[in-house]
Write a structure and sequence with these properties.
Length: 108
């Protein structure tokens, strides 16, 4: 006997046994299945709704990051330029001090 025939026969025998030994009547089982399918459908709709909400939120986050990044980069660029301008005299003074120290060391 092939695997598929054995699987089919086993499934039929298992289903028959379950139906014959079940503690619920046919109507009760139908109602239970109906409630189960209703619950699964509602949960699937909830998952779908949550997925749409997640997609919308991700889009909003992406837009927010784009606008914030542009503003932040501009602020950072301005701060770097300001720092460079303000630090220029100090850097020149430090360079001059290093040059004098180097010359003094050479003289020793």
């Amino acid at each position: 006997m092939s695997f598929s025939k054995g699987l089919l026969i086993g499934g039929l025998l298992g289903t028959t046994y379950a139906l014959l030994t079940a503690k619920k009547t046919g109507l009760e089982r139908q109602q239970a299945i109906s409630h189960y399918l209703t619950d699964v459908t509602m949960q699937a709709q909830t998952v779908q709704s949550n997925a749409v909400d997640l997609q919308n939120t991700a889009g909003q986050l992406s837009n927010e990051i784009k606008t914030t990044a542009v503003d932040s980069l501009a602020d950072i660029s301005d701060a770097v330029q300001t720092f460079s301008f303000e630090a220029q005299p100090r850097v020149a003074q430090i360079s001059e001090s290093i040059k004098r120290l180097t010359d003094d060391l050479k003289a020793l």
